[in-house]
Amino acid sequence: MELLRYALVSFLAILSFVNADEELYSDKYDYIDPYEIVNNDRLRDQYYNCFMDTGPCVTPDAAFFKVNFPEAVVTKCKKCTDRQKDNFEKIAIWYDENRPDEWTALIKKFIEDAKKMNVANDN
After folding, report:
1. Please, which of 36, 70, 96, 97 could form a disulfide with 114 given CB 3.0 to 4.6 Å?
2. Rounded Cα gap, residues 88 and 84, in angstroms
3. Kindly report the CA angle at 103 between 36 and 71, in degrees rounded to 5?
4. Which residues of 41-66 are buried (b: 16+ CB within 10 A; e: fewer)?
5. What digits encode the pLDDT tens for the residues 10-43?
6. pLDDT tens digit string along 71-98?
7. 80 — alpha (psi -120 to 50), left (phi > 0) or beta?
8. d(C-alpha 86, C-alpha 41), whole Å
9. What is the DSSP string of the chain?
10. Burial class (CB in 10 A: 0-12, 13-18, 19+), 70
């Protein structure tokens, strides 16, 4: 687990040098505090179920993140704002320390979703 955290932190540090001209995801939801979500069982479960397609996306921000997270994972957050990178790191560390199996399942799903989106875009 420590290796995963180290790799993620290193990866995010490298991403801070992304070209400023790159099109970024909307910063509309950058104000959201990820700790308010991960530390609240009800909210955390709502977001997780939304992302895993086992429940509805209750809030507009959850739907936004669900659409963009798969690409963000695969592209190493290339289009993320600095705040999104920071928030993603906070979420990754929290899940790595508290619910690593859920985090692994979520990342696997995001990678599969991204592959499906690429296949759809290629056809």
Report:
1. 70
2. 6
3. 90
4. eeebebbbebbeeeeebeeebbeebb
5. 555 554 444 445 799 999 999 999 999 999 999 9
6. 998 898 999 999 999 999 999 999 999 9
7. beta
8. 22
9. -HHHHHHHHHHHHHHTT--TTS-----TTTT--HHHHHT-HHHHHHHHHHHTTSS---SHHHHHHHHHHHHHHHTTSTT--HHHHHHHHHHHHHHHHH-HHHHHHHHHHHHHHHHHHHHHHH-
10. buried
C-alpha span between 108 and 97 (Å, rounded):
18
Q: Which is more confident, 64 or 11?
A: 64
Let me know how long the chain is: 123
Separation of alpha carbons 57 and 65, rounded Å: 10
CB-neighbour burial class of residue 88 (10 A; exposed 0-12, middle 13-18, buried 19+) = buried
